[in-house]
Write a structure and sequence with these properties.
The protein has 338 residues and is α+β, with helices and mostly antiparallel strands. It has a domain of 169 residues: Cation-dependent Mannose-6-phosphate Receptor, Chain A, CATH 2.70.130. The protein contains seven helices and 13 strands. It has a five-stranded mixed sheet, with no helix packed on it. Helix 1 packs antiparallel against helix 3 and helix 4 packs antiparallel against helix 6. The protein starts with a helix and ends with a helix. 20% of the residues are buried. Bound molecules: 2-acetamido-2-deoxy-beta-D-glucopyranose (4 copies).
Length: 338
């Protein structure tokens, strides 16, 4: 019965630990795959947060940037042998204010996430999208609905809605040496000037466990609490096993350092008794002159309210209280000595 008591206790502790760790994992589970610009690798389970390299227009105040080092242009990729350079933003429209995009309605100019400029004309190679996903082990993001593809341009002008439009596929590569919050897109190629392929190197493509900066898993306090709980549980369980198997103790004595804890408990109990009885005496002294009749009956009859709490029959008030305290203090001294 005693054993089951302590077993019950350690079970409680374990459930507390499990509860804490469940809370920690619940914390992360709200970062589901629907969160914009975040993808979860199905193989490693890591989260990839591309928001770190998603640029937003610098906040302006009186024509000046609030943050001096804020980027005011999107990421660039050189075209090399392709007769244009590319401007790209990740998960968001480009920062640049572009107009007269070939074959794109003016209402969608603000949605263009990647473009190039050729012969003074701006061609969109995709509209904003923020659902990166995994194709095997590759983190991929695609943009669609750009300018019409070259061969289809004439049909598009004759309002055939089935005309193909330029699109972009980006493959992200982890680069741990890259500075934080930067992306280096490289143009890989295009077969028919309709779909464009890029590789994007960034430290944001390296994956992490807790991605939400506002609620990054357990705080330091939580981690400390978990460690403390585990330590206490290990102490109790290991101590019980040792006392039981090696020292052959039974009942409460198999709890580790039982005598120490029992002593401590007694000490605290006695302290309470002392404090309460002193308090009671103070109150009694204060009250007795004013309403002596009531207090005397109470104080001498049953040893007072305090005596009842203390659990020690004090009998006839003041004098006995002092004796009891003296005895207690002597007892405490003895316990303190050993
Ligand atoms: C692309 O950019 C590089 C340098 O940034 C420049 O030398 C080159 O002329 C540009 N190419 C085109 C087609 O604009
Ligand atoms: C285009 O951008 C506007 C805001 O600028 C947004 O409300 C709209 O949903 C975007 N459209 C698409 C297709 O992304
Ligand atoms: C482009 O991305 C969407 C999700 O954003 C996906 O459903 C679609 O299959 C992708 N297309 C290609 C060609 O990868
Ligand atoms: C528009 O596209 C459909 C097929 O998607 C085709 O049958 C039709 O001929 C096209 N119309 C024009 C004007 O090109």
């Amino acid at each position: 019965m005693k054993l089951s008591g302590s077993a019950h206790y350690s079970l409680l502790l374990w459930s507390a630990i499990v509860g804490v760790s469940n809370a920690a994992s619940d914390h992360n589970s709200h970062l589901n795959d629907d969160t914009p610009c975040i993808a979860r690798s199905p193989t490693s389970g890591l989260y990839f947060d591309l928001n770190a390299i998603s640029l937003s227009p610098p906040e302006m105040k009186n024509g000046k940037k609030i943050q001096k080092d804020a980027r005011d242009e999107s990421w660039h990729a050189r075209g090399h042998d392709y007769p244009a350079n590319f401007t790209i933003n990740i998960c968001a429209p480009v920062i640049e204010d572009i107009k007269d995009v070939v074959g794109v309605e003016s209402s969608h100019w603000k949605n263009v996430s990647a473009y190039y400029e050729q012969a003074g004309k701006i061609y969109s190679i995709g509209e904003q999208a923020s659902e990166p996903f995994f194709r095997g082990r590759k983190l991929v993001l695609n943009y669609t609905n750009g300018s019409p593809c070259p061969g289809d341009y004439n049909t598009a002008s004759s309002k055939n809605s089935s005309a193909r439009t330029k699109s972009t596929i980006m493959s992200f590569l982890c680069d741990r040496d890259a500075p934080a919050n930067t992306a280096t897109p490289s143009f890989v190629g295009t077969m028919d000037s309709c779909t464009y392929f890029f590789e994007v190197r960034s430290s944001a493509a390296c994956g992490g466990i807790a991605v939400d900066p506002n609620a990054g898993g357990l705080g330091p306090g939580g981690v400390f609490g978990v460690i403390m709980l585990i330590a206490v549980a290990a102490y109790l369980i290991g101590g019980c096993a040792y006392q039981r198997t090696v020292m052959h103790q039974r009942g409460w004595r198999q709890c580790p350092n039982f005598s120490l804890w029992a002593g401590m408990f007694d000490f605290i109990k006695d302290m309470f008794v002392i404090i309460f009885s002193s308090l009671g005496r103070c109150l009694r002294i204060k009250r007795s002159p004013s309403s002596s009749g009531y207090v005397r009956a109470d104080g001498e009859g049953r040893g007072g309210f305090i005596g009842a709490i203390g659990g020690r029959g004090v009998g006839h008030g003041g004098r006995r209280d002092v004796d009891a305290e003296n005895r207690l203090i002597d007892q405490l001294d003895e316990e303190w000595d050993d």
